[in-house]
Amino acid sequence: MSSETGPHEDVPDDHNLPEQGHPQGREPGEGSVSLPEQDPFANPGLPAHQHRVQDVDEAAAKRSERTVAMLFTLSMLATVGFIASFVAFPADKIVYIWPAGHISALNFSLGMTLGIALLGIGAGAVHWARTLMTDTELIQERHSISAEPEVRAQVIEEFKQGATESQFGRRRLVRNTLYGAMALLPLSGVVLLRDLGPLPEDKLRKTAWKKGKVLVNENTGLKLKPEDITVGSLAFAKPEGLDHGEHGWANEIAKAALMLVRIEPADIKDKQSLDWSHEGILAYSKICTHIGCAVSLYEQQTHHVLCPCHQSTFDLADGARVLFGPAGHPLPQLKISVNKDGFLEAQGDFAEPVGPAFWERG
């Protein structure tokens, strides 16, 4: 047998083979079974609605109502505890709480009570919605942003229906405790704002100077006598007892810093300045009335003193009135005299607040 093919025998070609699954000479649809087309995005629909126990059992609804009310009441109690913590715990009290360790009792109590107050309202609202409000699924077609009057009327009607179905008017205990929790919670913010820092009261209007306070040299710490201040010289003083390093020293010296200059009494133009001086020794605030810089540049021939920050110039011989610059008013003067021991002392505090004019309007 020969395996070779004769010249007249047809060799099957791939292009002449019948299509797989279809007999040669038939159309693809002939004799085949067609499957139904399936929509891959078909709406599966909603399962059958299952009623909650609260929908069919009023006793269970009452239990849920009491649970919601308890959560709102817990929020109210926590808010009261938040406010009470400010009174109960000093700011520097440290306690040990496992596992946090040693922490501030005030911070811990504030954080816990405020967290419980917010949690009580949130948990109560969630439990209310899940157990007492209607859980019927509503389907609404999308609409344009600008609603038609009919749609707006429908929304209002649905809102009224939702208010009715929420049983807000019926469940008085839930409603009243929610009102209480929401009314008390903002008090936490009021307390926090109040605790941002101590009120200034009149501390910005008063300094450490008072009647009988001896003037002490700011550099040497020695008590000053009239002979220590010579004509043409400029000295700086502070109240006796105000020592560097003490608590609040920086705040006090910023208000009480004093500048002493001696001028011939005949050269003092302002009568009050002369009356408040001692043998021509004038005591003025060292704090510029513009933005509070330290005035320190003195010109003895003209009796002018200059602030180095913005060049405000004051005439010390004429009540320290402003001659030039942005300062708004003269430097406050301190009335001085000499005590029985021969030291310079104050006769009271400054007659007006020191520093920028802002504090006078404060």
Automatic annotation (TrEMBL):
Organism: Streptomyces gossypii
Purpose: Iron-sulfur subunit of the cytochrome bc1 complex, an essential component of the respiratory electron transport chain required for ATP synthesis. The bc1 complex catalyzes the oxidation of menaquinol and the reduction of cytochrome c in the respiratory chain. The bc1 complex operates through a Q-cycle mechanism that couples electron transfer to generation of the proton gradient that drives ATP synthesis.
Similarity remark: Belongs to the Rieske iron-sulfur protein family.
Ranges of compositional bias, category Basic and acidic residues: 1-17
UniProt key word Membrane: yes
Residues covered by the Rieske domain: 255-345
UniProt KW Disulfide bond keyword: yes
CDD domains assigned: Rieske (cd03467)
Pfam family, one: Rieske
Region named Disordered: 1-59
Cofactor(s) the record lists: [2Fe-2S] cluster
Membrane topology of the entry: Multi-pass membrane protein
Taxonomic superkingdom: Bacteria
Stated name of the protein: Cytochrome bc1 complex Rieske iron-sulfur subunit
TM region(s), chain numbering: 68-88, 108-129, 176-193
Cell compartment(s), UniProt: Cell membrane
